[in-house]
């Protein structure tokens, strides 16, 4: 593998405001080659999420990136969306033009398998949604477990409060059975839970820095995050918005932003009360070998600065291209 070539990634999403920001960060990062976006139901419906991904790519003049629809509903649990967090469209107050691009005809699960098996050791999967697509890809083709280069997952809450129930984070709560399959699959997983993402707060001051550049992308970020900030203030008293998914994406090219440790982590499926809780065995009480690496500390301000700086660079490059 050419270590100087861009890192090949597939981004599994439920776009979603922070998913959209992760897509923009991938496009703004020369270290990465965003080779496909796969979509599942989550923050909004599958169809809405696919349309949102297409519109965000068109906004960034990146309609060459394939978008593929996966599973609409979780494996077993009933569907759950988050309009209070992401708005009825999934992108807050933002209103984007329809894209000329149409979604690919292949199923997302098939694309995940095809891409990973076609390039053993080369593809990195960044999963920032309920893990339904990833779980089914593992069940359909178990060899992807060894063939994938790395899997970076935004999900879970270990020593941090849940954001959907008091103990469960949204992506793991929506499809806890899929999370259980993926966490115990043997894939080389790095987990970015709420423990680190909740330290990464994008503020109005950060957004104002982008608005000063007067561009459709800046306006999109402002309109999408305005809704998201209102949610964080109303529900959790946070002044700003937690950008979970861009942090997970950033770990593909800036792993030094976090401190990770190996840990045995499982997902509670046993009761309605604890459903979707991610349980880390920090004292090795169960004597299981670690099944993933988990990020527990983050250089939050350095990450936010990186995100804003890269958005500025993306905006400037697009303004230059159209001037
Ligand atoms: O809990 C936060 C996660 O759930 C993020 O990925 C957000 O987009 C939602 O999918
Ligand atoms: Ca997401």
């Amino acid at each position: 593998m050419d270590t100087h070539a861009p890192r090949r990634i597939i981004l599994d999403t439920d776009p979603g405001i922070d998913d959209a920001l992760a897509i923009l960060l991938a496009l703004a990062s020369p270290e990465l080659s965003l080779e496909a976006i796969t979509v599942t139901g989550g923050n909004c419906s599958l169809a809405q999420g696919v349309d949102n991904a297409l519109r965000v790519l068109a906004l960034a003049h990146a309609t060459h990136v394939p978008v593929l629809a996966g599973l609409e509903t979780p494996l077993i649990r009933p569907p759950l969306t988050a309009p209070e967090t992401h708005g009825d469209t999934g992108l807050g107050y933002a209103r984007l033009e329809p894209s000329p691009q149409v979604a690919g005809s292949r199923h997302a699960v098939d694309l995940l398998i095809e891409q990973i098996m076609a390039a053993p050791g080369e593809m990195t999967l960044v999963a920032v949604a309920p893990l339904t697509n990833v779980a089914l890809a593992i069940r359909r083709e178990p060899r992807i477990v060894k063939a994938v280069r790395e899997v970076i997952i935004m999900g879970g809450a270990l020593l941090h409060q849940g954001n959907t129930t008091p103990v469960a984070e949204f992506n793991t709560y929506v499809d806890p059975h899929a999370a259980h399959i993926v966490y115990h699959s043997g894939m080389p997983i790095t987990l970015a839970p709420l423990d680190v993402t909740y330290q990464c707060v994008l503020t109005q001051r950060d957004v104002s820095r982008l608005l000063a550049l007067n561009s459709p992308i800046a306006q999109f970020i402002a309109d999408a995050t305005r809704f998201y900030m209102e949610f964080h203030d109303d529900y959790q008293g946070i002044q700003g918005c937690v950008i979970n998914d861009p942090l997970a994406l950033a770990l593909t090219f800036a792993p030094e932003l976090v401190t990770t440790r190996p840990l045995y982590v499982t997902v509670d499926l046993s009761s309605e009360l604890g459903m979707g809780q991610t349980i880390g065995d920090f004292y090795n009480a169960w004597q299981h070998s670690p099944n993933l690496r988990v990020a527990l500390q983050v250089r939050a301000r350095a990450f936010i600065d990186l995100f804003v700086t890269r958005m500025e660079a993306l905006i400037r490059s697009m303004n230059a291209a159209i001037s």
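Residues 45 and 81 are 7 Å apart (CA to CA). The chain has one domain: 7-200+243-295.
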